[in-house]
Amino acid sequence: MSQIADFFYHPFSNAALKLLPKRGVGLRAKSKRADRIPDDPQRPLLTDYHSINDPTIRVRVPKKVSTPVKVEAKVWFANERTFISYLSMGLLLSTIASGLLFGARDSPARWFAFAYALISAGVLVYGWAIFQKRLTMISARDAGSFDLLWGPMFICLALFVAILTNFIFRFREARKEIGVNPLSLQNAWYEAGIKSTWL
Questions:
Q1: Distance in angstroms (rounded) separating the CA atoms of residues 89 and 119
Q2: How far apart are CA 31 and CA 25, in angstroms?
Q3: How confident is the prediction for the chain on average, in pLDDT?
Q4: For the range 167-171, what are the long-range contacts, defined as Cβ-Cβ under 8 Å and sequence gap of 24 or more?
Q5: Other CB atoms within 10 A of residue 102 CB
Q6: Backbone angles phi, psi at 192, to 5 degrees
Q7: For position 159, what pLDDT does the model report?
Q8: What is the pLDDT of residues 58-104, one digit of tens each?
Q9: Were 120 and a residue from 93, 143, 147, 198 both cysteine, which residue would form a disulfide, CB within 3.0 to 4.6 Å?
Q10: What pLDDT does 39 receive?
Q11: How far apart are the first and last CA of the chain?
């Protein structure tokens, strides 16, 4: 049981983590002056404290003390919240895909259902992989960046292409059936007139 838990919380080995690109190299965006003080024994001395009695006072700059990085609980919870968000999005897409698949009357609708199911499976796998990667980075107290821009952009692009293709296909199909533009005002008045005669 402990091996399963160990695999879940530490899925990537140290050798695999070394293959990842190095993050946080150089100065950080919010670095302080104390972060740029060299650690050599020849540290600079401060001589100007605007003192008027004794201008020769020389104070040595304190050396940085390396302490272990404290990981707060909100970091773990943020990682789990992100994973749950990916899960909810993937389950919503799979629900739409199953509704299209079992309620479809023609084969193109089934193809679109398979496309949505493929996107939902990709979202679920991507969310799990990101969760495991960030969990390993948090456990190793990695100071690198946790921002990932390309994954969500690719998911949004895939959804946009699938929905736009579905709309264009249905629009052309409706235009072939009724012979006019289904989005025109004339067709809207015609449909409203037909439905009003049903009452």
A1: 10
A2: 12
A3: 76
A4: 169/108, 169/112
A5: 9
A6: -65, -35
A7: 93
A8: 666 666 666 666 778 888 898 999 999 999 999 999 999 999 888 87
A9: 93
A10: 58
A11: 67
Query: Mind giving me the DSSP string for 74-134?
Result: HHHHHHHHHHHHHHHHHHHHHHHHHHHHHH-SSHHHHHHHHHHHHHHHHHHHHHHHHHHHH
**pLDDT of 170 over the 90 cut:** no
Helix (H, G, I), strand (E, B) or coil at 145: coil
Q: What is the mean pLDDT of residues 103-113?
A: 83
Which one has a higher pLDDT value, 58 or 150? 150
| Rounded distance between C-alpha atoms, residue 136 and residue 130, angstroms | 10
Alpha carbon 162 to chain centroid, angstroms: 20
The rounded distance, in Å, linking the Cα atoms of 92 and 96 is: 6
pLDDT at 87: 95
Considering only CA atoms, which of 161, 155, 166 is closest in space to residue 130? 155
Residue 160 to residues 66, 119, 123, 152, Cα–Cα distance (Å): 48, 11, 14, 12
**DSSP assignment of 18-74, as one string?**
HTSPP-S-S--TT--GGGGS--SS---EE--S--SS-TT--EEPPPP---PPPPPHH
Find, among 90, 76, 155, 160, the residue nearest to 128 by Cα: 90
